[in-house]
Records
---
Amino acid sequence: MGNPVVVLHVGAMKTGTTYIQNKVLANRDALAEQGVDFAGRRWRDQVSAVQDLLSLAQHDPEVEQRSDDAWARMVGHFRQVDARMSLLSMEFLSFADEATARQAVASLEGLEVHVVISVRDTAAVMPSLWQTSITSGGMVPWPRYQQVVRASTRAGGRVGAALARAGVPAARRFAEAIDIPRMVRVWTSVLPPERVHVLVVPGPSTPRDRLWELFADILGVDPAATPEPPEHVNESLGLPSAELVRRLNVALSLKEPSQQRTLKVDLARDALGRLRQDERRARIDPSTFRAALRWNGRIRDAVTAAGVRVHGDLADLPTKADPSDYDVDAEQAPPTEDELLKAARHGFWALRRLNNRLIQEGLPKRKRKAYQDALAAAAPGRKAWTKADDPVASAVEDLATQTRSAIKLQRKAAKRKRKKRRRQAARRAERRAQREG
């Protein structure tokens, strides 16, 4: 690589991107000593920049505000930073089409741009992608999602007309996430193949640090000099917890990404994620397993034909494999009522604690008790569930009430913070004017 260099790690989704991002953040100073700048003050700046580039605000006022002109600011950072290399890692870039990729590279004219596409065994990716779709507001059940998977792979990674007419949002997002051949084609259309790197995620028997070693090799840094572990990794949910969140999505129908943070982070990651070791996992059926292996073959063929630089072993994308080495189950039973209620109890108390904290932090003292009493009456919890004709539906209703409350309180808090910052900025401007006057 020459200098100055910009490395765009574009995903794909569920290929160890969260692990890499948190590993970089944990070793940010050590990487800076080796000449690698992780762009922006915080990773949120990279997210906003990519949302701006791809026009992903989705009519969410908070996202629009953060992302407005964010890509231009990021490009300015790339051009001004005193480092041999700048790194941006944001998996939404895997959704870019050729026009967007051309726009991104053109905006970086004069810099040496490299792209990293991380790739993982499709059979291992599928359950994780479903769960990601669920924690991002998806409503498609796991058996139906597997039908989407098979249809998408048969259509060459594209969404079939029948699925599009049926209005299955998960189909488009899944197709974008697994269509590695498209990503390779997009980025090699705007960059020479030697600047497009395919990072193959090692198989499950390989130590986790091996993925970091491969990525560090792309950056030209010594992995031994970056010893700090990531603060957290993006663990999957168990099947009952994921199904509970799916039902909650149906009840809530949240439209804005900023609203979904309560579900994605506070409920799914921080609360239900703790049940992962005790819950059954989503298993793929034999037909979906065979489709995944065939898709691995298409990825390998596309990567090889493109002549890009491969880091890792393409054999970790198997085209033949023993189902016993995977979570393959021809007749996996859906979550039971007891399993769903166990997850609901855990989630309910986590949301109640969140609401209590937000009430204490954000409401005037005179309003707190009345708000808490009203919320407790609207979402009474476990005792009411046991008396209901459909205990799970009753539990979902209570969780939805708690979630709406948390979203409302968080928005109030964000609004107050914005007002406070504006007042502080106005006072600073006034003081400057007085000094200059």
Note: Residues 252 and 400 are 6 Å apart (CA to CA).
---
Amino acid sequence: MKPKIRRCGVLMHPTSFPSPHGIGSLGDEAFSFIDLLSQAKASLWQILPLGPTGYGDSPYAARSTFAGNELLIDLRTLAYEGYLDVEDVLFHPDFPSGRVEYGSVRNYKEPLLEQAAATFIAEAAKKERETYQQFVKENQWWLEDYALYQVLCRTYHDSRWFEIWPKKVRLREDTTLHQLKKEHAKAIENIQVQQYFFYTQWANVKQYANKKGIQIIGDIPIFVAPDSVDAWSHRDLFKMDEDGRQTASSGVPPDAFSDEGQLWGNPVYDWEAHKKQQFSWWIKRIEKTLEMCDIIRIDHFRGFAAYWEVPKGEKTAIHGTWMPSPGKEFFSALKAHLGEELPIIAEDLGVITEDVDELRISNGFPGMKILQFAFSVEQGKLDANNTYLPHNCEHNSVIYTGTHDNNTSRGWYESLDEQTGDAVRRYLECPDDQVVWQLIRHMLLSHAKDAILPMQDWLELGAEGRMNIPSTCGVSNWSWRAENLHPVEWRIERLKSLIELSGREGI
């Protein structure tokens, strides 16, 4: 009988890499991180969505589901290639080392990226120019709209196309768009070149990771941002009126954690329109992500069974309705296009109903298990049947100490009440100072086929290392950065030893 492959990985978004330019990039630090994973015998690297971020800087509210975040482009590589002066890269503001200050980073990097793209347009060698032209040809179906959209965001000083932009632009009147493309041709090409830089650098990073035996887990938010090129250029695929404004928004209903639920505000899909187009937009979305990654985690997977739709004008999510989604038809179409074995992880956290489980299980997708959700205590006793406890995890699942939406494991443990903290220590059989490593150990020894720990847990950081607090828009969200990519040797050796002991070397 063929043994089941078991793997271990680390969650680390590229923005969190250390670098001299205020934000992580796809340069030396990306390759150093891959070397670090290889040294520890980890075979998975999980990231967050790679799209260009807008207001709030959340990768889950990107301005495009197909474009890459230009702020991740490595300036040093562009200087090596002759598109920037070395002085431009060597002399930079004194950025904080532990956090991304997005405004300062944009002020510094965006002019340099425009300068590099302009130099490329003027001076690129014939071979490089031909490669670029091939990139544009292959990606024209999304690239031209994205480049124009970014130009218009700057022109109107606002990304809210549905409120601020002139009506003919908002509704994409043909003659108007043709004129805008002609008028802004240089700026549009500049943005297309920047996307070429991003995709070229990312392809090199992915190739290096795969060569080292490491697969990359990407991420797709189920919904798109309202102020995105996707919503603007594909209004027919969303529930919008003839004036381009949403008639309904996404969210989740009230629950034990929120009396008003959560009103996310994303446009919801007109699934009938998607069916008429044979889910072509969604298929392209999955296809494009699989070019960039090896595995996809789909955020809010339950939305493919049913989603919470809130009517226009509501201030909270209370008065919403569960609406059916054609998940079975969609995944059937996706399999017909990409094959039966889809490398998808279903984010199935929260209140999950039988139809969601059936959709996930029938397609063979692993669900997610979060250790921080495992320690439910009632009347002083740990619930040994909690499905998130390592001994209860099924093989076809991916177990995490925590995700980008959780506190770090150390921060989480330090916030527990005395009773729950005692249950954690008794389950793990360890004192306070070993809780994080014992969580990692039990996660790796679980039956789950894949086990992922955030980089912050490898470093045993406290709450100061938290990546995101859901339903907030604070300056600390999405901004954490590692001080360096050289953990003390014992941390590398300890994780390596646990990976070997638990048979998670991925081979």
Note: The chain has 18 helices and 14 strands.
---
Amino acid sequence: MTVKMVDLYKQYQTISNDIDKAIADVIADSAFVRGRAITDLENDISNFLGTKHCISCGSGTDAITLALMAIGLSKGDEVILPAFTFAAAAEAVALLGGTPVFADVDKTTFNIDTDSVERLISKQTKAIIPVHLFGQPCDNMNRLMDIATDRNIFVIEDNAQAFGAECHLHNGTTAYAGTIGHIGCTSFFPTKVLGCFGDGGALFTNNDILAEKIRSLANHGQTARYQYRYIGLNSRLDTIQAAVLKVKLPHLKKWIDARRKAAHYYSEALKNIPFIKVPHESAKGSHVYHQYTIKVTPQYRDRLRSALDTAGIPSMIYYPVPLYMQPAYSDICIYDRQSDNSLALSECVLSLPIHSELTHSQQDLVIDTIKSFFEKTKSDNHCYD
């Protein structure tokens, strides 16, 4: 039995006729850049999320870069973001001349810690970038928005891993992750919960002025053909990718439900192993399980991963080193000296295969391998705390 981290081909097979037709229609129309599917997709996503504007672009990293350009990030400005995450947001900040400021994260949700954020705010703070990590939306968006509003700071949500996740707000309403801050960003990388067949991304906002500027910045800074108001980027979603995403979007809730069921199956089977902590689900949001990430007692984490590999089961460590310790950022960043959780998590996290087509039989192979490993491991009574 083969187990994959993500089975993109099996997902394609469930909608292959619609995908093939959508691609064929784009080819027949031959408008490969800024074709009709772009506008259609942007409208569909706006309607799905309940935002006024959706602007597609070339990648999730471009989306964050464009958001920072739109708010006027300049040299010396500081942007607070989590130390335990993918490098895209920090990369965008640094490339634009800003200073990445790394906050610690919560040890149970893996998301940015608001106390750490408050410790790091300075007169130079331009923006905060909460990352909805592994599919779990930040459960502190209310407080983050209050902090930002009081200090006139922008909030740019990195929703690349949590498209379709919902946040429960203090006024009793819910909102999709990525729609609460001033700008939301996402990636359509193939392995994402909503992924295309290549690179792609998008931004969301309810602010008309920001939306107009982002559209211009993504198209070489043009306000009209050959009229350049800004120094911009060439960042456009290909029409074929938009057509693929347009077909996929109506299936998203079904696929998320399948991911949740798979995650709960894992958790029920693994929750009583003393050297493992299964993922925490906050009551303040809905997890979409872009990754199913367990915490393993550090002395066993790498050995468990090796045992899974021997059994032909893939796993991943997201992320092995906090960003403030990475050579690219260590000399140019500021970080919270109390970032104990980011470092501790990097030594214990392990992501198991999860996707909407994962079967219980495949999961049982993963589960049995994990249980067998710990049964064969001499207990030293050092359970995970």
Note: The two ends are 34 Å apart (CA to CA).
